[in-house]
Amino acid sequence: GGPASLSRFRGALVAAVLGDCVGGEFEGAQEVPMERVLQHLNSLDDETKGTGILEYSDDTAMARCVAQSLLTRAGFDDQDMARRFAKEYSASPGRGYGTGVIQVLKKLSSPQLSDVYQPARDQFNGRGSFGNGGAMRAAPFALAFPDIADVKRCARLGAKLTHSCSLGYNGAVLQALAVHLSLQGALDLPQQFIGRLITEMEELEADEVARHDARILKEAEKPFCERLYRVRDLMDRSKISVEEVISELGNGIAALHSVPTAIFCVLHCLQPRECLPESYGGVERTIAYSLALGGDTDTIACMAGAIAGAHYGISAIPQTWIKCCEGAEDADMSAERLHMLYHQSSQGG
Ligand code: R7I
Ligand code: MG
Ligand code: MG
């Protein structure tokens, strides 16, 4: 499809859910042999093997809250979104939430709470979380607003409801920007795509608070930019080992160690790769490759899935995979409604 087509919207939200659901199998594993990944993915195609339904985790649970809130309020409403996070957590606390964020979600359900951003600020001795929980649910922001300034502002605020450290919420902005650009067809020119992301993050990370957080956490002066430069170097190489990707970019639970990694997975899988079946399309390649990195597999595959799905569109996603994953059909319907919201706003209505 063309820029911002319905197929791209559907691809983005559905592939994000698939990444989360199929990635759950390997979350926390050191490094996963590609053979095991392919075995797991093959079992989705084989109905007789009865994989059953793969459940989604917190990544999808929270992304659904974001999408539903944006749709119901026809824009960003922090109170409404916070309420939905809290309600979702108390209804299904067993979705694999990060151990820190649970405190925030409990506080958000208090009716006495006057500032919905305060519980997030109290995390980790007042510094706030740098986990990837803001980034893992950022894709719907890119699908709700055609204007890049709205995407950045709302993705940041939406993340700050749980992640007040700049390394947490800037990761969410980066993820939303990657989905935004991919929806426009920007991955047709990968060099420009990564260049645009670097330019945006150079500006965001020039901020005083971001510089302060980076200093305190002993990171590079502009941590996301530094990682994106590494992505740009790695994407030019024809051969690169999984070990190198992990050591250069990480595969962990911090936004800094997973969002640039997810972006790399998408870029690396734009072409067919020797280690992956020839029959695989781009979305399948991207998800399979993300899982093979191990570590925070559900989240990296979820974020990479959203970016890749926005590029290749819904037709690149196997029906058999959709059928196996809880919430995939639902994501498809939300994508259609977000597509309408997006195109309403772009007409100034
Ligand atoms: O970021 P968050 O929502 O977790 C998301 C991850 C995804 O992989 C999901 O799939 C799920 O498995 O969890 O939850 P947080 O609790 O805010 O952050 C996750 C973890 O990162 C925390 O439990 C800490 O171990 C670590 N962490 C920190 N550690 C020290 N200091 C995050 N921020 C800090 C920090 O400031
Ligand atoms: Mg999860
Ligand atoms: Mg995870």
Tell me the layout of helices and strands.
Elements: H1 6-23, H2 34-45, H3 58-72, H4 78-91, H5 101-108, H6 118-121, H7 123-126, H8 139-144, H9 148-160, H10 166-183, H11 190-204, H12 208-216, H13 223-235, H14 242-249, H15 259-268, H16 282-292, H17 297-312, H18 319-324, H19 328-346
Helix pairs in contact: 1-16, 1-17, 1-19, 2-16, 3-4, 3-19, 4-5, 9-10, 10-11, 10-17, 11-13, 13-15, 15-16, 15-17, 16-17
The structure holds inosine diphosphate ribose and magnesium ion (MG) (2 copies).
Describe the fold and architecture.
It catalyses: alpha-NAD(+) + H2O = ADP-D-ribose + nicotinamide + H(+). Its EC number is 3.2.1.143. By secondary structure, this protein is mainly alpha-helical. It is 63% helix and 0% strand. The chain contains 19 helices and no strands. The longest helix has 19 residues, at 328-346. 53% of the residues are buried. The mean pLDDT is 96. One magnesium ion binds at residues 27, 296, 298-299.
